[in-house]
Amino acid sequence: MVYKKKKSKFMQVLKFKISNAMSMFLLFIAFISFLIIGFNQKSYAIPDVQSPLDDSFQFGSLGYDLFSNPVSYNGANIAGVTVTKYFTSLGDPIFCLEHNAKVETGITYNKGELINDYGLLYIMANSYPNKILKDSNGQQLDSNFQTWITQVSIWLYLYYAEAADNGSVSVDSVNYLTDEQLYSMMYGREVTIRSNDTNNGKVFTTLGDDTIYDTYIKDLVDNALKVRTNPNKNLEINMENKNISITNDEKYYQTSLITVTGSPSDNFNGYEIKLKNVPDGTIVVDEDGNEIKDFTNLSVTNKFYLRVPVESVNEQNKKMTVTAIGSFKTYEGNYYRASGYQTVTSVKTVNNNLEKDLNIDLDYTVLVSDTDFSISWIVYFVGILLLLCGIAILCIKYKSKSKSNS
């Protein structure tokens, strides 16, 4: 008969206690693993709006007129359309917005509301003095000739705009033009200076057989009528998608790429950003992951991400806002008025700003990159295995103890 050496009671108890201790340690490690897996200056001073004209000015004139030569209408010659060159007391050219309203030099004009008629702004942005007109040979037109073209373009635009809104233009309207005046504007071929200065009698005309209207005015007015309700600048801030990822070190939630665009792009100078209701420690990084510390001087090509510390997120700051402030170089103008007299304006290139908000919700599902996914799930499975091992050890020991007691 073979006798098995019986283990001492002390050794059995000791091994049981060691096994239990090891099992508890493994359970503790597994529990911790589950917890880990469970939650993972000086300003740029973007320019303020600059007014094209002073808050008030005195209405002045150089003392001479520009008029289109008479044209034949229904078998008779009709008078041309007269344009007077007007200026402020500081020499800025101004243009009339009401064809049938009283004009008088020396009257003080005061600034009114900002012009939001984008067709009118288009006319003035694309004609003298903001854009120099040239003839078919590429030669710059005389400034007097260009002044006549700009003023007539404004009157025609306002006439057709009112007709589009109301079906017709009342004879009592400040924008009313007679059939003869319309005909003269559209079929005149020459403009003459009438004054007492040395340019008296100088004649300006188009090259070839086209009328002044066909050559310089028609396309300008037609395009202005098409953009009447289109803002002359627009700013957009967009996040590529609504996903929030987590960085490789699992310390930050990261937005998808944020882009700021301004249109027209040629007039977009750049932008700054402001962060509202963001968790402590939030940073901004560029496309290469480099931190952007100066939010006040971002170029038109800059794109960025927001990185938010995981440990800083709470119920109060899950909804963040990024405000983009775009700087534009655009044409702006105000209406200037004097009671009982002609309304006038002048439009210039100015720097002004436009704001747009982007709201970001950290309640979005967090996407984990492939690298993060692999690392996190390795730790996760290790935790699972440790937990199962601990439970298995306890079960085995429990069975062993039951057998030994029996």
Explain what the structure shows:
The two termini are 23 Å apart. Residues 1-11, 29-50 and 367-376 have low confidence and may be disordered. The longest helix is centred in the C-terminal third of the chain and has 36 residues, at 370-405. Strand 10 (244-246) and strand 11 form a beta hairpin. Helices cover 30% and strands 30% of the residues. The protein has helices spanning 9-38, 118-125, 143-166, 179-187, 212-226, 370-405, and strands at 56-68, 71-73, 76-78, 82-88, 93-96, 108-114, 190-194, 203-205, 234-239, 244-246, 252-255, 258-263, 268-276, 283-285, 303-309, 319-332, 334-337, 344-345, 348-361, 366-368. The chain is built from six helices and 20 strands. The strands form four sheets. Strands 1, 4, 5, 6, 7, 8, 17 and 18 form an eight-stranded antiparallel beta sheet that branches. Strands 9, 10, 11, 12, 14, 15 and 20 form a seven-stranded mixed beta sheet that branches. By secondary structure, it is α+β, with helices and mostly antiparallel strands.
Q: Can you lay out the helices and strands and say which pair or pack?
A:
Blueprint: H1 9-38, E1 56-68, E2 71-73, E3 76-78, E4 82-88, E5 93-96, E6 108-114, H2 118-125, H3 143-166, H4 179-187, E7 190-194, E8 203-205, H5 212-226, E9 234-239, E10 244-246, E11 252-255, E12 258-263, E13 268-276, E14 283-285, E15 303-309, E16 319-332, E17 334-337, E18 344-345, E19 348-361, E20 366-368, H6 370-405
Parallel strand pairs: 10-20
Antiparallel strand pairs: 1-4, 1-6, 1-7, 2-3, 4-5, 5-18, 6-17, 7-8, 9-12, 10-11, 11-15, 12-15, 13-16, 14-15, 16-19
